[in-house]
Amino acid sequence: MVSPTRIGLAGLAVMGQNLALNIAEKGFPISVYNRTTSKVDETVERAKQEGNLPLYGFRDPESFVQSIQKPRVIIMLVKAGAPVDQTIKTLSVYMEKGDCIIDGGNEWYENTERRAQAMAELGLLYLGMGVSGGE
Known about the structure:
Pfam family, one: NAD_binding_2
Helix content: 40-55%
Number of strands: 6
Largest sheet: 6 strands, parallel
Protein name: Cytosolic 6-phosphogluconate dehydrogenase
Organism: Dimocarpus longan
CATH class: Alpha Beta
CATH architecture: 3-Layer(aba) Sandwich
GO molecular function, one term: NADP binding
Number of domains: 1
Mean pLDDT: 94
Radius of gyration: 14 Å
Domain 6-phosphogluconate dehydrogenase NADP-binding: 6-135
Structural class: alpha/beta
CATH topology: Rossmann fold
């Protein structure tokens, strides 16, 4: 196991993959996860090809979350709607009080408020930071 990273990123479509690689290129070790594991493999391979960047891929949500230093910060870039709720549910099971999900999707503000409230009830932080398209 590598040393814990300071940040994680879940969702490795075009924006997520490129953001993760950019963070790693700047010298910040990052853990990455995607529901579709082939995207994890693709991202890890790109990190190797682009200079053995400090990017670490995880195929299961538990090992992904556990790879991040506490308090954990996870950037999430997944498709708006049900995939966001499913990703939160999948990751939050392994998170601890004080950990944070930063949602990079751009979705209706009431969904962001609902998710922030649900996370707060678990002692988790949720920040909506719309940098990606949404519905």
